[in-house]
Amino acid sequence: MPPGFRLFDRVIVVVQFLLPILGLLLFWELAVRTGLAQASILPAPSTILARAVELLGLTGERAVLFGHIGASLKRALLAFALAVAVGVPLGFLLGLSREAQLWVSPILSLMLPLPAVAWTPILLVVFGPGDLTIVIVCFLGAVFPVLYSTMQGVRACGTQPVWVVRSMGGSRLDVLRRVLIPASLPALITGFKLGMAHSWRTLVAAEMLAALSSGLGYMIFSARSYMDVSTMFVGVVCLAAIGMAIEHLLFGTLERATIHRWYVRDAGTGGRQ
Amino acid sequence: MRLVKDGLRQTRRVLGGLALAGLAAAAPAAAETLAVGVQQVPPDEVYIARDWGEPYGLEVEATQFSSGGDMLKAFLAGRVMVANGGSGRLVTLAAQQPETFYIIGTQQSGGDRYSLVVRKDSEAGGIADLKGKKLGVVTGTGTYGTFLVYLQEQGLSEADFQIVNMKIDDLRAAVEQQLVDAAVMWEPFVAIAEEMGNVKRLVSMKGVNESPNFLLANRAFTDENPETIVKFLASSIDAADFIEADPAEAGQLAADQIAKGGVEVPAKALETAFTRISVKREVTDDMVSELVPVAEAMQAAGKIGEVPDFGSFVRRDLYEQALDLAGSTTN
C-alpha cells in the first residue's frame, strides 16, 4: 500500500477512535448549557478546559498541574518498574519450578485478594504519609498482574520447544532467550498493561490518603475538600487521558515493536527466525 | 487554698513570661524545629501560609493530613508532636492512652461554624418547618452532636426528621438537587455553598455549645521541651489574632495558600467562614466540661471504661506563658 494511503488509513482510525469521545463531550456541553445538568455539580467540558488552561499556566498563572502530573507519573512509573523487576523474575521462577510454586503459591493466594489500597492505613503508620507509602501501595497493586501473567506465559510455552533447543545443544540461557522470553512475550505485555493500569488506579486512592502536597489524587482530594468542582474534573480528566496515553503510546509502541512485528512476520514465514 | 494556687500560677506566669521573653529576644540565632500536624481547614491554611514561628526562632515543619484520624495516627506514632482533634477522638485518646498527650489549646471552636442550610428558594423559616423532612447530616461528628443539642433546646429530636447520613462534600449538591430538604454543615462548606449561590443559611448553632477542636501536644516531648511548645502556641496565638483582626486579609491569605495546590476557593467565602469560626486558643472550663457528656455516652455504649478527668490533661500554664510571650514579642 502506498505511504499516502497508509497515512490516510491511520487518520481514519484516529478519527474513529475520537469520534465517540467528542460526541459524548458535545452531549455533555449541551446538557449543561440547556440546564439539563447543573453547572455547579457537573461543570461543562468548556469550563473544565478553561480551568485546565489556567492550571497549566497558559494564562500566566502558576503551572501547578504539571507539578501534580509529574509527581503522579513519577510514583506510578517507579512502582510499575519495581513491580516488573520483582514480578517478571519471580513469575519465571514460579512458572518453571514446581517446587518454588508449592512454596510461594499459598502466600500469593493470600495476598492476591487484598486490594492494594487496604495496605495504606498500615503503611501510613509504619512509614508515614509521603512518596514511600504511595509507591509501596502502587507496587502492591501492580506486581500481581505482572507476576501472574508472566507465570501463565511461561507455563503456556510447554516443554517441547525447550527440549528441541536443549537437544540441539542450546544452553539454559539459549532456552530463556530463544524460547521462554519470546513465547511468553504476549502474556508479559498483557501483564505489563494490567500492572501499569493497576498502579495508575491505585495511585489515586493512595495519593488521596497519603500525599503531602502533590499528585493528581491529592489535587482531586483537596479540590473536593473545598468544593472546587472544576478542578476536581480537571484531575479526573487528566487521570483518564494519561492512563489512555500510557496504554496506547507506551505499550502500543512496545507491542508494535515486538509482538506485531515478530508474529506477523512469523505468520508469513511459518515461524520465528 | 485557691488564693495560694492563683498566686503560684501568677508567679509562674510572670517568671515563665520573663524567661521566654528573653528566649524570644535571642531566638533567631538558633531555630528550634517542631513537627506539627495540620488539616485542610481555613485556620490551618493561614497558619502554614506564613512563617509564624520565625519571631520566636521556631521552625515549624507542618504536615498536612487528609483527615483528623490520619493525623492522630501520626501523632501517636510520634511523627508529629502537635496535632488537633475533636471531642470524640479526644475522649477515646484520654481513656485509652492518657499518658501520650496534653491539651495545650484549641484550634477552632464555636457553634456559629455549624449551620442548617436549605435551598435558596426554600420557604422554610425555621427548624420547625422542616419537621418530617429529609435532613442530610454527617453522623458521628461534632457538628451532628451540636445539632442534636440544638434540637433538644427546640423541643425536637432526631425522630422528628428523616435523617440521611452523607459525606460533607456531597451535602451542598444534595440540597441543590433536592435529594434532601436541608443539610447540617460546617465551615467553610457553608460559606462556600452560599458563595456558589444556590443555598442559604437557615439556622446557625451559635451559642448552642463550643464544640472545640483541641490542640494536642505529645506529653513526653512537652515535658522535655516546654519552651518549644510555648513558642508554638505563641505563634499560633499570633495567627489567631491576625484572623480575628482582619478576616478579609486572612481569607485572601488562605485562598492564596490553597491555590498553591491548584484549588480555587473564593476568598470572600473564607472571609465569611473566619467571621463564624472562633480561633481563640484558650481552653475554657466550659469547653472541658463539654467533653463529659460525650465521654458518658461513649461509656454507655461500651466504647470506653471510665470517664477520664479531662481537666488533668489541660496545660493552661503553657497557654499563659505563650500569651505573655506573644504579647512581649509584639510589644
TrEMBL record, chain A:
PROSITE patterns, per database record: ABC_TM1
UniProt keyword Transport, yes or no: yes
InterPro entries according to UniProt: MetI-like, MetI-like_sf
Compartment annotation: Cell membrane
Keywords tagged on the record: Cell membrane, Membrane, Transmembrane, Transmembrane helix, Transport
TM annotation in the entry: 7-28, 76-96, 108-128, 134-154, 175-194, 200-221, 233-254
Topology versus the membrane: Multi-pass membrane protein
Protein's UniProt keywords contain Cell membrane: yes
Signal peptide: none
Family: Belongs to the binding-protein-dependent transport system permease family.
Name of protein: NitT/TauT family transport system permease protein
From TrEMBL, chain B:
Domain SsuA/THI5-like per the UniProt entry, residue ranges: 55-250
Main location: periplasm
InterPro entries: SsuA/THI5 (IPR015168)
A Pfam family reported for this protein in Swiss-Prot or TrEMBL: NMT1
Locations listed in the record: Periplasm
Source taxon at top rank: Bacteria
Keywords assigned by UniProt, alphabetized: Signal
Signal peptide per UniProt: 1-31
Family: Belongs to the bacterial solute-binding protein SsuA/TauA family.
UniProt name for this protein: NitT/TauT family transport system substrate-binding protein
Organism: Cereibacter johrii
Taxonomic lineage from the root: Bacteria, Pseudomonadati, Pseudomonadota, Alphaproteobacteria, Rhodobacterales
